[in-house]
Amino acid sequence: MAIIKPFKGLRPIKDNVQKIASRPYDVLNSDEARDEVKGNPFSFLHVVKPEIDLPKDVDLHSAIVYNKAKENFDKLVADKQFIADEKPCYYIYAQTMFGKTQYGIVGGASVEDYMNGIIKKHELTRPDKEEDRMNHVRVSNINAEPVFFAYEDNVKLDEIVSKTIKEKAEYDFTTEDQVGHHFWIINNSDTVANIEKIFAEEVKYTYVADGHHRTAAAGLVGNERKNNNKNHTGKEEYNYFMAVHFPASQLTIIDYNRVIKDINGLTDNEFIEKISKNFSVTEMGNEIYKPTKLHNFSMYLNQKWYSLTANNNTFNDNDPVGVLDVSILTNSILEPILDIKDLRRSTRIDFVGGIRGLGELKKRVDNGEMKVAFALFPVSMKQLIDIADSGNIMPPKTTWFEPKLRSGLVVHGLD
Q: Rounded to an integer, what distance in angstroms lies between the CA atom of residue 384 and that of residue 398?
């Protein structure tokens, strides 16, 4: 069962929370972050992307960068931009996008749960990215950004959340992308104890939805500190890392689409003819066509949209990975027809989050940068959980979650 602990959070002062809260470190590059913080010395980007306060040619993985993160956070605390809660709390972090709100419980996920598989994952991580985030945690001594977890719905937890959100939120603001962010503090001792008990007795597993590298880094640093502490008791703060836990039914995965630079020397007609062996292909004209169900794809080629419906022989319903549309596309088109063997390393393919809309696919083909685009029907939370439960791994670039969690609303210290 899942261990989720309350913690004494470090939180922004209410008057400045909107200036402090930032987008997460991995959704914008260094130059974009530099532009975003202009005129705002309080932005949490100074902590999660500290290279923005150093010369542009700095090595992003050098000690000076991680030391700058610690320096910048320590200054925010010294300047009283962050305050510490006096006793361990849980928090509710809710986000509203397109009229829909999802409610997450912020708590300390267990490092032990990560090591023994109670926290389940569905993506591979890269050692270099893990090490980068591990160094950030080691030097700053905080979990600066929460990771995004899901759990199978629980009525008792829903009731606690419903009761909590009737009170006035501690923070309530809307960001430039028109996403609402709402944040409550749960510090009632009985309620805190009840939340911990429900997770421990009724929530068998939690699932990494977004933030696999940050999860790995937090878990591995916690385990590292355990192994290096001769007086380890299991009660230290480094045994936990900050995660926002959402009921699975509230989450929406949006499409993650593909654009390809060439069609491997084929003419358009030859390409469509090869695709037609495994797909029912229908020309849809000039209007954008969006996939309508699983195993239905849209393709944009030479200013025309096509509907592609996979034949039954292209997938196995009993294979949790093979039945995914990203697998069908790879196994039936990308590898055998386009000779794209390694999605992680090929320079002939790029990936476009569905938040940008299918117009972005059209634009990148029409301007000549890409030759063909494929849009996919989104993966479901059930598919994600089935894959995680079976111990399998999703192909690269399968899930895209929106909205993204803002960083800096609460910080977890490791001491």
A: 10
State whether the Cα torsion 316-322-328-332 is positive or negative: negative
Instruction: Write down how long the chain is.
Output: 415
- At residue 121's C-alpha, the angle toward residues 61 and 298, to 5°, is 95
What CATH number has the domain bearing residue 366?
A: 3.30.1760
Nearest in space to 40 (alpha carbons), one of 7, 17, 74 = 17
- 56/173 same-domain check: yes
The alpha-helical segments, DSSP class H, found in 239-346 are 268-275, 325-329
Asked if residue 294 and residue 169 are part of one domain, the reply reads no
How far apart are the C-alpha atoms of 185 and 105, rounded to whole Å?
10
Question: What is the Cα 105 distance to its own chain's centre?
Answer: 16
Whole domain around residue 53: which residue ranges? 4-252+402-413
Q: How many domains does the chain have?
A: 2
- Same domain (yes/no): 325, 238: no
Q: What is the pTM of this model?
A: 0.91
Tell me whether residue 12 is in a domain: yes
pLDDT 10s per residue in the chain (415 long)? 999 999 999 999 999 999 999 999 999 999 999 999 999 999 999 999 999 999 999 999 999 999 999 999 999 999 999 999 999 999 999 999 999 999 999 999 999 999 999 999 999 888 999 999 999 999 999 999 999 999 999 999 999 999 999 999 999 999 999 999 999 999 999 999 999 999 999 999 999 999 999 999 999 999 999 999 999 999 999 999 999 999 999 998 999 999 999 999 999 999 999 999 999 999 999 999 999 999 999 999 999 999 999 999 999 988 999 999 999 999 999 999 999 998 888 999 999 998 889 999 999 999 999 999 999 999 999 999 999 999 999 988 899 999 999 999 999 999 9
Residue 29 shares a structural domain with residue 92? yes
DSSP state of 168: P
